[in-house]
Amino acid sequence: MLQGEARRLLPFKHRTRICQRLVSQGKDTVDVMLDKSNQSAYYRNLIVCGMPWVCPVCAARITEYRRIEVAQAVRGIAARCVLVTYTVQHQSEERLLTVRRALQDAYTFMWSGRWADDFNDEWGVQGTIKALEDTYGKNGFHPHFHSLMFLNTDATTHELEQQFTNALRGRWQQVLARYGRCASWENGLTVKIVYSDIAEYVAKMGHEPIDEPGWDIAREVAKGPSKMGKVHGLTPNQMLLESYRGHFVYERIWLEHVEGTRNCKQIRWSPGLREMAGLPGEEKSEKQMAETLPDGYELFAQFSRTMWSFFLDQNVTGEILQIAGRGDIEALWEFFEKMGYKFEFYDLRNIS
Q1: Residue-range domain boundaries for the chain
Q2: What is the pLDDT of residue 294?
Q3: Which residues on neighbouring strands pair with residue 85, listed in sequence order?
Q4: For the chain, what is the mean pLDDT?
Q5: CA 267 to CA 5: how far, in whole Å?
Q6: Sheet harboring 298-304: ordered strands across?
Q7: I need a surface site. Which of 59, 108, 135, 299 has the fewest CB within 10 A?
Q8: What's the CA gap between 221 and 144, in Å, rounded?
Q9: Nearest-CA neighbor of 133 among 83, 183, 74?
């Protein structure tokens, strides 16, 4: 549904308009792939656009692929992890592109030169994973960076929360002032300790994790473009949802988000960090990620090109995935019959 709303808003020749609609060249069937354990289904053999900032379907696939990689880094790199979030104060009338460039310029200056070298040496910074996220609230667009830092340090949690945080905040304030910007001391730069296991969290906090960002750090870093949760402002998917519901002001807002994030890389790994995590040195393209299904998916059903064209005409491709996610082939067949589709033959396949 969200992808359909994006198609409605985008220019005619935008490649997201054909995403998950045209059958890939050389393929005769559209396959429905099912993960029974998670009750989720995907289509296979369809063209994908691979644009996480624009396409909700590709965003879900790409960010899930990246979430798995970030989680592997957190588990596999023998280092202390902290999540640093950078924001900059902005006005409601400022365009996203303007604020995002100011944020990027300040971040780039902060992590270049003598100060950055000395800080990295002092705290044993092994590398970072930096992710861009964009939300919209009462003060306009709110782009911000999440930076997952891997530290080779014997510093205690208290030292990280105090000395490490204050050093970063002081530097961030100086850099923002250099660019004619500012941010509050408390909220302009925040640091979250990534606990090595749940026992450490309980020992520190006195209870098990209850907020998703505080525990599932890989999801916080990687899933920005596909989030629908409770955040300070609307995510891109929530902007699309509001537009779908008839709040037309969000048509313009979402299109400005598309323009303001064009050619922006969602996640950047510092050199050598992927190898430290046991990952290939070169990241797959976003299109390749969108075409890759996670492990655990099996073939559930196959549709001919004729069947697929009918489903597109009836605008039921989303409903089909919902039913397929339950793993009930009979329910899927009953759904087709209710639509009045008369199959001369079919090749639905039940994987039991």
Answers
A1: 2-47+297-339, 72-280
A2: 79
A3: 146, 190
A4: 88
A5: 26
A6: 40-44, 29-35, 298-304
A7: 108
A8: 11
A9: 83
